[in-house]
Amino acid sequence: MEREDANETVRLVEGAGRKAILITGDIRENSFCRKLVEETVKAIGRLDVLANNAAFQRTYESPEDQFDGTFRTNVYATFFLTRAAMPKMKPGGVILNTCSIEAFQSSESLTAYASTKAALVSLTKSFSELAIDPIARDTR
């Protein structure tokens, strides 16, 4: 299903007269996120927008069943991709992180997911400070 969705996205982007590239891999892995950013910049020439929209959500009787996997997809991937992208972006570049109402009003059945969305709110604030203050970015 993900491959079909990716192919449809490429079709839509190219149908709008833009260039699209399809790079497959696992965003839960830091090395792939770095590779993804590098290959994108190499193929397109620059990076203006990073949209962190991947998410894993499932209800569990025992939330620890998928806690690590949910965090790797929802938080680690955003962290890895943002860290890789920021040095490549010029002033005016945009990083979008998708969060959820679950960050503020969590459901019992979505403990892992809600926790990741709350973490993303904080992570987004932290990265925004780094983006605003390049001197702080260079010292971290």
Would you mind describing this structure in some detail?
- With 140 residues, this protein is mainly alpha-helical.
- The protein has a single domain (2-139), classed as 3-Layer(aba) Sandwich (Rossmann fold).
- The protein contains 5 helices and 2 strands; from the N terminus they run ααβαβαα.
- The chain has helices at 2-15, 30-44, 67-85, 111-132, 134-139, and strands at 49-52, 94-97.
- Helix 3 links the parallel strand 1 (49-52) and strand 2 (94-97).
pLDDT < 50 stretches: none
| Structure annotation, total helices | 5
CATH class: Alpha Beta
Percentage of residues in DSSP E strands: 5-15%
Q: Name the CATH architecture.
A: 3-Layer(aba) Sandwich
Strand order of the largest sheet: 1-2
Tertiary shape: globular
Based on CA atoms alone, the radius of gyration comes out at 16 Å
Number of domains: 1
Report on the biggest sheet.
2 strands, parallel
Give a count of the beta strands, DSSP E runs of length 2 or more. Answer: 2
**How confident is the prediction overall: mean pLDDT?**
84
The H-and-E topology, N to C, reads as HHEHEHH
The helix fraction, in percent, is: 40-55%
The name CATH uses for the topology is: Rossmann fold
**The named CATH superfamily:** NAD(P)-binding Rossmann-like Domain
Assembly state here? single chain
By secondary-structure content and strand pairing, the structural class works out as: mainly alpha
Q: What is the straight-line distance between the termini?
A: 39 Å
